[in-house]
Amino acid sequence: MPSETTARPHVEIAHVLFIDVVGYSALLINEQQQIQQELNQVVRGTEQFRIAEAEGKLTRLPTGDGMALVFFTTPEAPVQCALEISEALASYPRLKLRMGVHSGPISSTTDVNDRSNIAGAAINIAERIMSCGDAGHILLSRRVAEDLGQYAEWQPYLHDLGEVQVKHGVTLAVVNLYTEKLGNPELPQRIKEAREAKSSRSGASATKDSASSEARGFFEEVQRRKVYRVAVAYIVVAGGLIQLASAVFPAWELPNWALRLVVVLLLTGFPIGLILAWAFDVTPQGIRATPPPSLASPRRRGRRNLLILLGAGVVISALAGLFILPRASARKLDKSIAVLPFENFSDSKENAFFADGIQDDILTNLAKIGDLKVISRTSVMPYRGKSASAREIGKALGVSAILEGSVRKDRNRVRVNVQLINAANDEHIWAEDYDRDLTDMFAIQTDLAQKIAKELQAKLSPTEKEQLTRKPTENGEAYLAFVEGHNLFVSGIEDIEKLKKAEQLYQRAIQLDPNFALAYASYSQLESWLFHTWSNPDAREKARSLAKRALELQPDLPEAHLALGFSYYYGDLNFDAALSEFESARRGLPNGMDTYLALGAIKRRQGRWAESTADLEKAANLSPKDSWPLQNLAFNYQMLRDFKKANETVDRGLAISPGSFGLWEIKSKLAWLESGDTSVGEKGLQQLEKISDSSEKQHYLWPARCQIFLWQRRYAEALQAAENWPDDLAEAKPEMIISKQMLVGWARKSLGDESGARTAFTKSKEVAQSKLASLPNDAGMHAQLGLALALLGDKEGAVAESKRAMELLPESKDAFEGPSITEAAAQVSCIVGDHARAIELLDHLLTRPAALTVAALKVDPIWDPLRNEPAFQQLLSKHGAKA
Question: Does the predicted TM-score (pTM) go above 0.90?
Answer without folding.
Answer: no
